[in-house]
Amino acid sequence: MEIELRTERPEDYRETENVTREAFWNHFVPGCCEHYLLHIMRDCPAFLPELDIVAVYDGSIVGNVICTKSVVKGDDGKEYEVLGLGPISVLPAYQGKGIGGKLIARVQELARERGDRGIFLYGDPDYYGRHGFTAAERFGIRTSDDYFADALQGCELYEGALSDMRGRYVEDAVFGIDPAAVDLFDRQFPPKEKVSGTPSQKRFTEIAARRKNAK
């Protein structure tokens, strides 16, 4: 399968939002919010258009990854700029074919060229551990509410890049989305059934619960 990776263009926006909706629908919770998050991210100051990459197969977008500026609020009182990865999405019919890994590798390559120090995300350690990520706890980095969490994963972009920034990882305010705005935005797409109790939702609940006090 020959996949083209390229920067997303404005004319791609709605197609990419639909890909994201299809990828996340009923995955973590009944329905999803990630397509709306992607929609509003492009207008926020933290958005990095050069790290907004689509995967194209046979003329259609089948995957997307986006990054935003985030910070680690260091225990030393300093703020360290890092990247936050996500949403990352691949159409269900194309999952398991290595497309997500290609998108991650491309972002890592571009981020190194930019001179970034590290990338963080919340996700399944079993998956992201295969793509250069490890528990942020290894670097002394906690959630914004000061917990070590298995879901919080970090990737050093060069040796020792994260070794001096113990602290709390804080995402951009754009992630604090309004559920009512999500519902309104979702009405622009074809109706889909919201389902509870899927295996992926149970897995998400299990991973999200694996937190411990940093003190």
TrEMBL record:
Question: Region Disordered: start and end of each range?
Answer: 192-215
Question: InterPro entries in the record, alphabetically?
Answer: Acyl_CoA_acyltransferase, GNAT_dom
GO MF assignments:
acyltransferase activity, transferring groups other than amino-acyl groups
Taxonomic superkingdom: Bacteria
What species is given as this protein's source?
Zongyangia hominis
Q: Where is the N-acetyltransferase domain?
A: 3-153
Q: What is this protein called?
A: N-acetyltransferase
